[in-house]
């Protein structure tokens, strides 16, 4: 499974890939890192870059992906749950577990949102790559 996260997410869905990753001892953070690493390696022209530049690109890309995931999850929340998260954040008590609990309580399909975000992110990133190569 981890050998090709991108293909497996497209074919099997994020929920199955995440479950397989957990069975292999990976957490969500490691799965996102693997996804980003594979995206960078799939991008045309990256193979010739220095290791340092690749690592910088991977770090920046992962930050953007995490932002997009958080944004899409927050946008799916009803107003009252969004206000609850804002209140926790203002009080300095919001952490990942509490955020996840609010998402679950909201009844939104977290896996579907993540699947859509990861697929969109991948498509946009790889298309951007191809446009630069063709230009």
Topology, number of strands: 0
Radius of gyration from the alpha-carbon trace, in angstroms: 16 Å
Query: What is the helix/strand order?
Result: HHHHHHH
Number of helices: 7
Low-confidence stretches: 131-135
What structural category do the secondary elements indicate? mainly alpha
Shape, principal axes of CA atoms:
globular
Residue share in helix: over 70%
Terminal residue distance: 35 Å
- Could you give a short account of the major beta sheet? none
Strand content: under 5%
What does this structure look like?
- By secondary structure, the chain is an all-alpha fold.
- It has one domain (2-134).
- The chain contains seven helices and no strands.
- It has helices at 5-12, 14-23, 28-42, 51-76, 79-90, 96-106, 110-134.
- The chain is globular.
- 10% of the residues are buried.
- Residues 131-135 have low confidence and may be disordered.
What is the structure about, briefly put?
The chain has one domain.
Kindly list the characteristics that best describe this protein.
135 residues; mainly alpha; 7 helices; 0% strand; globular; disordered C terminus
